[in-house]
Amino acid sequence: MIFGPRIELKSPAQLRSMRRAGLVTRAALDAARRTAVPGATTAEVDAAAEAVIAEAGARSNFKGYQGFPAVLCISVNEEIVHGIPGARVLEPGDLVSIDGGAIVDGLHGDSAFTMVIGGDELGSATDRALSAATEAAMWAGIAAFATGTRVSDIGDAIDDHVTEHAPDFGLVEEFTGHGIGSAMHMPPEVLNYRARSNGPRIKPGMCLAIEPMLTAGSPESRTLDDDWTVVTVDGSRASHWEHSVARHEGGVWVLTAEDGGAAGLAPYGITPVPVD
Known about the structure:
This protein is an alpha+beta fold. It has one domain: Alpha-Beta Complex (Creatine Amidinohydrolase), CATH 3.90.230.10. The protein has helices at residues 12-35, 42-55, 125-147, 152-165, 262-265, and strands at residues 2-3, 7-8, 59-60, 72-76, 79-81, 95-104, 107-116, 170-171, 177-179, 186-190, 206-210, 213-215, 221-223, 230-232, 238-240, 243-248, 251-254. Strands 10-9-11-16-17 form a 5-stranded antiparallel beta sheet, with helices on both faces. Strands 3, 4, 6 and 7 form a 4-stranded antiparallel beta sheet that branches. The protein has a 3-stranded antiparallel beta sheet with strand order 5-14-13, with no helix packed on it. Helix 1 (12-35) packs antiparallel against helix 2 and helix 3 packs antiparallel against helix 4 (152-165).
């Protein structure tokens, strides 16, 4: 069903397929995390995720998307999003954001996380705080989706969280979250900041990808000559966290989290309700 002219509302059966896509996405990203060790190339990390997607009988929604050549976006240090895997060797202490997705039964999953190569103890205090703040801002946005009435409540919550808890970090505004379902990127646009518009009403069956990005310095960005990789203008490091989330008749369920979002939502007093 389409709400308004363009926003999909998923049936219970579609939500169950999206959960399956979310779990394949999660497994692929877990494989990428295990492979992303010092000395590994970003191409090797991508190959590990691709093997998991293929073994599950799913398809990548990144590879071939507008010509993108890989199943993951792997963005290192000052790269914010859309880094292309290749021959780059990961070094101890690199701050790496890994973003990927899968298609099951024609429905999509999409998720991202940030990690320090070699373990958090090898990252700077700023890098650790940056990733933690980005992840926390994502959960603030997911909690707002669970309890709010309009999509704009998500951006308000993310912006408020960063302003209160991480005011020294830059909040990237050029890239946003999005609806997700029969396509990877669908209406509505999900802003990561407070805006005048209230946005569409949240309805049962709505599925969104919620994905804030923060930088250790200025949030100003530019795109490299490969027409994909987005970097910070000032060279500061960046972090990106994302989950695909369903709001349904019973509540909210994080489709790309193994526990449905229970741990991340617990500080907000929210108990997620399964779609399956």
